[in-house]
Amino acid sequence: MKTPKLKIYIKTYGCQMNERDSENVAAAALERGHGVAKSEGDADVIILNTCSVRGAAEEKALGKAGHLCARKNKRGFPIVGVMGCMAQNLAEKILERAPEIDFIAGSRKTPYVMDFVEEMALRRLNGEKPVAAERSKRARILVADAKIDVSDDKESHRLINRHFAAEKSPCAQVSIMQGCAMNCSYCIVPKVRGSERSRPLEEVLLEVEGLASKGVKEITLLGQVVNAYGRRQIPSENGDSPFVRLLKKIEEIKGIERVRFLSPHPAYFRDDLIECYRDLKKLCEYVHLPLQSGSDRVLKDMKRPYRVKRFLEIVEKLRAANPEISISTDVIVGYPSESDADFEETRKVFGLCDFDMAYIFKYSPREGTASALLNDDVTENVKEARNQVLLEMLAPQSLHFNEKFLGRTLTVLVEGRAKRGAALMGRTRSHKKVIFEGDPKLIGAFADVKIEQATVTTIEGVAVSGARAFERP
Prior knowledge:
By secondary structure, the chain is an alpha/beta fold. It has helices at residues 16-31, 55-70, 85-89, 91-97, 113-125, 189-193, 201-213, 242-251, 271-279, 296-301, 308-321, 340-353, 380-403; strands at 7-12, 35-36, 45-50, 79-84, 103-106, 134-135, 142-143, 147-149, 171-175, 177-178, 197-198, 218-222, 258-262, 286-288, 326-333, 357-362, 409-417, 424-427, 433-437, 446-454, 459-463. A six-stranded parallel beta sheet has the order 2-1-3-4-5-8, with helices on both faces. A five-stranded mixed β-barrel has the order 17-18-19-21-20. It has a three-stranded parallel beta sheet with strand order 9-12-13, with helices on both faces.
């Protein structure tokens, strides 16, 4: 029996890497003649792309999977599948909570999700109803008719190259590597994403050139430790690391006007990369540089291979290379045994770096990580208090950064409508949101906006000139 045309709905939890994986699946569905549904209620297939970084995201996904399976009709539709990091890490737990799940695809099986979808669709159309999972006393595993594949795949990173959003947006994300070799004590990523694997430089450049030919103006390079790209796989050249080589090659691609990357690691922020913020016109003056802690003792316990002095040197060099640069960070408060003195060091470094954006997390143990074996001895009240201290510091730092644009005219890439009213929203090269009134035809274009108002989170202004149109070839 031929697979019918299906409408696919994908709900994504977690990071930009997950967003990119979801887009790859959606593009694969379109290539096979299927459609992308706008809502769950309109879908024949519902896929949850899951995250394991935080427990709250896992619980939401587990609850959602169970709810969706309970909505299946007598023929077993909608087909419900789970992919991503949680699928890789907790397949058995997913089956326990949602025993009529149709497939579970680990994070290294993203390129094959549509194969699983079509296989399960044919099963249902042939009258095979979902079989609830049962625990086998002899094998001590869950048994069901779900398609489950969480095996490793050494080539999966080379197959995340399809694009769906590029058909309607001037921005695109490009996955250049997968996996992580850092083994930070609190992080589940190496377990669920696997070993560090980089795509060949030529394949990345071909993908970027293809996006440019479709009218894409801004790309974001993605990787778990993106600035470690090519390590041990691609040679350095004239003192340039493989990642810097890639940035310089993209600089030459006609049509691409802005380049960003996520998420780098301080351990790989060497001078050749810092100098790119001075020398490369397309590299945007924004960097996300995770601090995690301002205490050398805690950094050592976290197995972070740098110390505060080195981190501050990187920040100083970045600001010298480009005074306009925006620097955001990640900080974890309440890591096991973090003392008042440790936190005071974090507070000091947080102020010295003058971050204008930060993601501040209260530590929570993740099953399968080294730190989960430690005594989580910092109380929730103390974690919350420390979290609030940093948030209170961040607000004036963010406001000060945004206020320096008052009276200036900035070029923004208009991404869409703002959440309120008829205003439009675009971003500066420093990744700041700019809200302004304008013709919806400007969406996808570069527009010059004179800044008139600044808040902690946004900048507002007035369009002062025509836009450079976002045109398809």
